[in-house]
Amino acid sequence: MSIIASADSSFRSFRSATASVVATLLLLWVSASVACGTQPKAHTDLLLSFQGSVAGAKYIPGPGEHGAGALSVTGAQLEVPGQLTVGGPSSGLAWPVTNLGSAGIGQRMLAEIVVSPGILEQGGTLIDVAGAVRLDVVDAGRVRVVAGTTSREFALPGRTGPERRPVHLGLVTQLDDSGYGVVTVLSEAGRIGEPMDVTGATESQSAISFARGATGSVYGAAVTTGGGGQRFVLGQLPCAPMTTSVVYRVSVTPGECEASILAKASALRPSPQQSRWQERELTAFIHFGVNTYTGLEWGTGDEDPAIFQPTGLDTDQWARVLRDSGFRTAILTVKHHDGFVLYPSRYTTHGVQSSSWAGGGGDVLRSFVDSARRYGLRVGVYLSPADENQFLVGDYANGSVASQRTIPTLTGDDDRDPRGTPTYTLAATDYGTYFLDQLYEVLTEYGPIDEVWLDGAQGRIPADSIENYDYASYFALIRALAPQAAIAISGPDVRWVGNESGVARLDEWSPLAVKYVGPDVPEPQPSLQAASLGSDDDLVRAVEAGASHLVWLPAETDVSLRPGWFWHDEEAAKSVSDLLKIYYESVGRNSTLLLNIPPNPEGRFADADVARLQEWRAALRQDMPADLAVGASAVVAGKPAPEAVDGDLRSAVAVEGDGSGSIEVDLGEPAQVDRVSLSEATAAGGQQVGSFAVDVWSDGGWRQIGSGGTIGHKRIIAMDEPVRASRYRVRITAARAEVSFAGVSLYGHSAESVPAQTDYYVDCSAQTPGTGTMTSPMRSIEALRSVDLPVGATVHVRSGTRCSGSLELWGYGTQDRPARLVAWGDGPEPVLVGAGNTAALRALDYQGWIVEGVSVVDGAGSAPR
Ligand code: FUL
């Protein structure tokens, strides 16, 4: 039975007309009826913007919605208000046609839908009027109307490339009781093409359905009967972002609307491991192993261990040079792809113990960690999952299936006390077990490890072999044994910047859209190399394309001082200007810098490399001598904002994120500035800034002297021309949310060399923060966290004061030049109280510090990271 029984007799005359005549008449009819006021009154019989809820297969309308009858929902979920997520062939919404009254679909009717643009890429039927008229997706730029024996494609205007705006489409049907009539397609841009003449459209189902067989988000659906039918009821429905609490990772759904995605990105925060890692900024890579002696970059796994013969291993030199150059962490290649291990592992003979070096008793890792701790350097380990030697042994990529293993595997002559050795049951292949056993050794016998660097390479094994890394087990063991460590590259905490030339993106975001390619192995979307990774556009497109989560995933920029990662006699170090560029394009762009310095076959950094690092450090001091902004007057929204100029990147001031926020700094007197460093307190406030501008006050007005995109942990911009002014302003011109602004630093290049400041004064009762000179003391102990103290520096704390905050001093002393923490001025012993302070004191003692007349105690204060 057909329900087509139109009461609109004026309409029948169109039937025999040609399409163009039909179109003209239709338009005339519409305008005439509007003009004469004869048009029947329109009724919006269905009006949904998905503010309601879903119970089983029934949609329960929310406030302001109208959904008479049992509106059924199949294969669809309402995860976010305002957005129904549909997925797959049998999904969709169906609304009974009986709700249209006796005229049924044989009356003028507008059926409309608003969907996420990704739906167009997936196909499906967007609107189906009782089986009589269908609006099908053809592709991202076209839809097709199928009605009776007629069908026609319509190109969607303005949708030729990737698109983020929701798609709003409507079908105006005007059919008579024999299924003849006209169908018009509307998009948000207006009518598309000419109205289509329809013959033989027959009702074959008793519902109007929406988004059938589609995958993505539906933001609204409506049916309006009577009236002109040319005007949309739904408009471009607003997207209602979910209120998201602060998280490290959040799931997203394909088709999720932009506001919701960006709200989630804005709610992301780094984990404590990531914050600690980011604050350290400069990490050294040390590629050392059998390749140092063979001249290869990738070893073969069958090297004779005897070739490993450092004639003068000097890990103290490594650590000293690295600290003197400002590095805070160093990562040693404990095992590169060849599989040769730099410590005596119980599980292989391909390692230092098989070399005659040091009589077979050498342990480079031990020596390295001892030196690192002596000079106050954090330790990272590079343990290559790829292992050519284990391939030759027959364990790596041997096809074994992961099964539950007890780690560590105790060996026959194991020297570990089984009772004092915690064990872990983890799923692993044969090789996975080997790798876990080595991780266990390294993470339990060499003190705290702060970064575990896992490369994703498979090594040069035959193309048909593969080792499926047991990442879930690796990560579980690392988290259990080294909870403070950041797991980098093939891991959840740190991502590769995407190149090995030392350059981060101009605008580097840490909140990214990802897919998981293994448990906790995020793969940034659209790709690690994408030019605008993490931007608003990329996030939205990545979610459309199927990214499953947004996650905090900051960039590490790795590059070598020399062309190769390992030592090669014939190679030379990069120039100072290359290194400066690398610094500004990594640390200055919200990334950490991982700079490789390869020891020579002797086991030392070459003198020329050491000299180059020192020149680089000196050049950075000349570029960025004392921060002129510290202690200046700073104002945000009319209120003093000392947090922005206190040299402590954890303290922050809230700045409006709606484009109106700014930070004004008045130095009191003109100073020359050519470099500006900005920071967001990402641990507290995430990463929000999308664009900013820097102005100076000159000739009675503000003049823009620089601008940029993201800020994140640190963004350093250089002015084209140095400026001389006393008032500076940073405008936050776009942000995802309110900004936790940590600091602005202003620097003027010095033509002369700038000696490192050796004495720092701290007065926690001072009115204003200072640079640390006696006349301008620092106001908190936390401001010293950002300072790399030269050997033998002295920190003077004002007597009679009490400083709260964790003690974190980046400096060391030697026998001849001890570093000192002493009281300054008259009065009772100053007190430093903060979380982890006594442990910090013990470490300082080991690093050659003398503490005199200062009481260091544990307490609240900001937690150590
Ligand atoms: C790469 C490795 O294959 C290189 O040999 C080097 O270790 C570099 C840092 O990572 O993926």
Automatic annotation (TrEMBL):
Keywords: Glycosidase, Hydrolase, Signal
Annotated SMART domains: Alpha_L_fucos (SM00812)
Residue ranges occupied by any F5/8 type C domain in the UniProt entry: 637-734
The keyword Signal belongs to this UniProt entry's keyword annotation: yes
Top-level taxonomic group: Bacteria
Protein name: alpha-L-fucosidase
Statement: the UniProt record of this protein carries the keyword Hydrolase: yes
Glycoside hydrolase family 29 N-terminal domain mapped to chain residues: 306-615
The EC number(s) this enzyme carries: 3.2.1.51
Family the UniProt entry places it in: Belongs to the glycosyl hydrolase 29 family.
Pfam families per record: Alpha_L_fucos, F5_F8_type_C
Organism expressing this protein natively: Mycobacterium hippophais
InterPro entries tied to this protein: FA58C, Galactose-bd-like_sf, GH, Glyco_hydro_29, Glyco_hydro_29_N, Pectin_lyas_fold, Pectin_lyase_fold/virulence
